[in-house]
Amino acid sequence: MKRICARVILIEGEYIYLMYRHKFLNQKWITFYTYPGGGQEADESLEQTAVREVKEEFCVDIKLDGLLKKVEYEENITYYYKGTILSGIPKLGGEEAERSCKTNYYEVRKIPLSEVKNIDLYHKELIEMAKKC
After folding, report:
1. Which of 38, 58, 70, 99 stands 20 to 30 A from 81 (CA)?
2. Cα-based distances in Å from 99 to 59, 64, 95
3. Which domain holds residue 53?
4. Is residue 45 part of a domain?
5. Domain count, the chain
6. Is residue 131, in this structure, part of any structural domain at all?
7. Does 53 map to a domain?
8. What separation in angstroms does the CA of 37 have from each of 26, 54, 129?
9. What's the pTM?
10. How confident is the model over 19-38, as pLDDT tens digits?
11. How far apart are CA 64 and CA 53, in angstroms?
């Protein structure tokens, strides 16, 4: 059975909040960005998963504004939502803060929407979808 995941696109004005990653993998350094989110826990709705994961990773409370897309990958099924920050200032938290080190680095970044085209981020089309939601 595939793992079920939820991720959230957090746009604030002309910026988007993303998780920056820099890690050593397969004998080389890789750098990329991801949307906050993660795996569904038992007895948890997809919406609860999305809200919990953003709270854990970014230390903010959010509301969900709608489901943008469902994507089935080889190992998981991921649901992408648009979210709005209700309270808090995004900063690294949870397991990501505990695991972050020189060879497996995590950082919350506020990226201008005009710069997204220059970064390594999958499903950039979700940003345009979120802006219309």
Report:
1. 99
2. 16, 27, 6
3. 3-124
4. yes
5. 1
6. no
7. yes
8. 24, 6, 18
9. 0.94
10. 999 999 889 999 999 999 99
11. 12
